[in-house]
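Tutorial handout. Part one gives the primary structure; part two gives the three-dimensional structure as tokens.
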Amino acid sequence: MKDVVRPPVETIYQKELEALKEVDDRPKPKNWELSPWAVVQFLLGGKLKNDIEVEPKYFGDRRLIELAVSTLVTDRALLLTGIPGTAKTWVAENLAAAISGDSSLLVQGSAGLAEEALRYSWNYAQLIAKGPSKEALVASPIMKAMEQGKMARVEELTRIPSDVQDTLITILSEKILPVPELNFSIPAQKGFNLIATANDRDKGVNELSSALQRRFNTIVMPLPSTLEEEVKIVKSRVEKIGQQLELPAQKSPVEEIRRLVTIFRELRSGRTEDGQNQLKSPSGTLSTAEAISVFQNGQALAAHFGNGQVNAEDIASGLTGVIVKEGEQDLQVWQEYLETVVKKRKDWADLYEACMGWIK
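Part two.
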């Protein structure tokens, strides 16, 4: 998969997964590639007994990841929720890769998703030629996961219409997928479970029914608690994405990342980092994922149209674009922040001038 734009996690971190298997002597649930302990190690990183260094995939509370993994050992499904950009999808993908060795059994939720995407559909050529049969069934990713005893993923669960969401109730409670057209059911093999993600900030969110909520253990994914933690996350992800996109090698300037993350945190929280000044917040979420995107775009500009080193000019346009989303109101918030905070900070003059150049 050398030329794939975004290889799956199990391919990117194949060596780490193999190294973990070598040292993993703890009990494994049926059809799990790694023990629960090793799955947590894969996500949080660290040095193994065989001197292999496992790269951290998630920077945050260890207990939160332990809760997520322990949920998947039981017959309860896992729901990762929180505002956009809190690494819900990234954690779900890494969990599936570590547990099943396969993160591809995915249903992407949307407002137009049909029930068949969660259950099964039909090969109509076979259906017309032979009528309803097992050969004519087209398995959904969830059906495949049930048959193989693997983890399935559903992204943006609350974007799916409520009546379609409830298709999951029988699957999660009875661990079977009825096929009434053929008068039989597909039982889930041991190892099957479901990891879903959802956020409560999108427009068009559909609430989960009480019956479906009871089938999930819900974990709220928090934003990074400190500036340094968020800087570390942005730096790590930018460097990894840069390698995957084969951008010219360059060191990510930590101070430039720190300035970007500081702006995001202050506008998000409505106050400066020192707590001295209250600020207005724009309409957007200003998530860690958006900070990564802004810096990644700046990295590409610097690599191909600059001197190779990311500077204020490279991130100014992306920064302005991600903050000013709702027109005049957000523009006023951004201008006020530039004048009252950025302009007064020592060594931030270049960033002030670059950003003002994009809004004048």
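Part three, for discussion. Residues 227-359 form one domain. The longest strand covers residues 193-198.
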